[in-house]
Amino acid sequence: SCQALVLCPGTFPNGMMFVGDVSFEGGRFGEPSSKQLTASLKNIGHRMMRFKTGTCPRLDGRSINFEKMAMQKGDRKITPFSMRFKGKTPKQRPCYITYTNKKTEKIIVKNIKRSALFSGLITGTSVRYCPSIEDKYRKFPDKARHQVFLEPDGVNTNEYYPNGLSTSLPYEVQEEYLHSISGLENARILRPGYAIEHDVIDSRELKHSLESKKLAGLFIAGQIDGTTGYEEAAGGGLIAGVNAACFISDLPPLTLARSDAYIGVLIDDLVTKGTNEPYRMFTARAEYRLRLREGNTKIRLLPQARQYGLVDKSVIAQME
Ligand SMILES: Cc1cc2nc3c(=O)[nH]c(=O)nc-3n(C[C@H](O)[C@H](O)[C@H](O)COP(=O)(O)OP(=O)(O)OC[C@H]3O[C@@H](n4cnc5c(N)ncnc54)[C@H](O)[C@@H]3O)c2cc1C
């Protein structure tokens, strides 16, 4: 038992992964799924739905010919995420751009029915804004090529993330189409791309504080709320965490208005309208977006930060 609980199990609840016609249980590649959570949530009255997301294969940088690609350097002057950041930013590594071509298209179109997305294996609703490469060829047949953005997965790793090539095609098809792309002729797959289907709650059963309407003291955040994305998960997690602390301290919950912050828009959309597909936070969703600027964060959010003790007093004094 506990006084308050923040639940944020991501894609793990009843996670099922797909690589072509091979499917297996899992929350993330190499990690088991969470099988009891959905039953517990249903027991307290939450309605559950099924969403789907996916990722691209990971490649060994030592097998990529970067000379055939265009180098994309990072910003010369790095703007840190926090306006209070004073330290040194980490060393940067460049990204590279290449493109799919007619040969890639032929391989993918020929095998499209073998993708878990189109073979009928996946029934959950997909992320409209991060389509798989096979979905791009199906939805935009007139496009001669699609961009592939090769991103290093870290400063000290050979692993590369070929952004744009999310897929649930079989392993051998992934290998074949990768090798048709300029610079990736000899690319070695470290982990195949896959799709993952998982349970989510109906977010209309949450309050603006992200507390469950079904069980007092239970706060639910992240992908299980029907969102997808790092920022969406971090924003929801912040509110759920603050409010779990408020709950046990008998303080009123922290809620942000749509005109206060993008987090306010995200949560208001989720708890009032709900979502029937993985929700991404776009600037276009915010009717007050002219007001929601990085440069005026202090003015918009300092009162809440002060009231809830979210920032050090010394920092508040400095900001004031
Ligand atoms: C394959 C894939 C690719 C993605 N690519 C991108 C991307 O490029 N850009 C982007 O913005 N977003 C991406 N996303 C989305 C983003 O990663 C998620 O939306 C976000 O990480 C969700 O955060 P979370 O905290 O809800 O869950 P997670 O980050 O998944 O964390 C859930 C945690 O809960 C733990 N857990 C689960 N069940 C239990 C249990 N029963 N007991 C104890 N612990 C448990 C897990 O071990 C895990 O550590 C991707 C997601 C996936 C699945």
Summarize the structure.
The chain has helices at 37-43, 102-111, 133-139, 171-178, 230-248, 262-273, 297-307, 313-319, and strands at 5-7, 16-19, 22-25, 48-55, 58-60, 70-72, 95-99, 147-152, 159-163, 189-191, 194-201, 218-220. With 320 residues, the chain is α+β, with helices and mostly antiparallel strands.
Overview of the structural elements:
- This protein has 320 residues and is an alpha+beta fold.
- It folds into 2 domains: 5-54 and 198-289, FAD/NAD(P)-binding domain; 57-192, Elongation Factor Tu (Ef-tu), domain 3.
- The chain is 25% helix and 17% strand.
- The strands form 3 sheets. It has a 6-stranded antiparallel sheet with strand order 6-7-8-9-5-10, with no helix packed on it.
- The radius of gyration is 22 Å and the shape is globular.
- Flavin-adenine dinucleotide binds at residues 8-12, 27, 34, 37, 53-55, 196, 222-223, 228-230, 233.
- The site of flavin-adenine dinucleotide has 18 residues, from β4 and α5.
The residue fraction in helices comes out at 25-40%
Bound molecules: flavin-adenine dinucleotide
Q: Radius of gyration from the CA trace?
A: 22 Å
- Describe the global form: globular
CA-to-CA gap between the ends? Answer: 41 Å
Largest sheet: 6 strands, antiparallel
- Unreliable parts: none
Structural class assignment:
alpha+beta
Q: Specify the number of helices.
A: 8
How much strand?
15-25%
By CATH, the superfamily of the largest domain comes out as: FAD/NAD(P)-binding domain
CATH topology grouping of the largest domain: FAD/NAD(P)-binding domain
Mean pLDDT score, rounded?
A: 93
- N-to-C SSE series? EEEHEEEEHHEEHEEEHHHH
Going across the major beta sheet, what is the strand order? 6-7-8-9-5-10
| CATH architectural grouping of the largest domain | 3-Layer(bba) Sandwich
- CATH C-level class of the largest domain is Alpha Beta
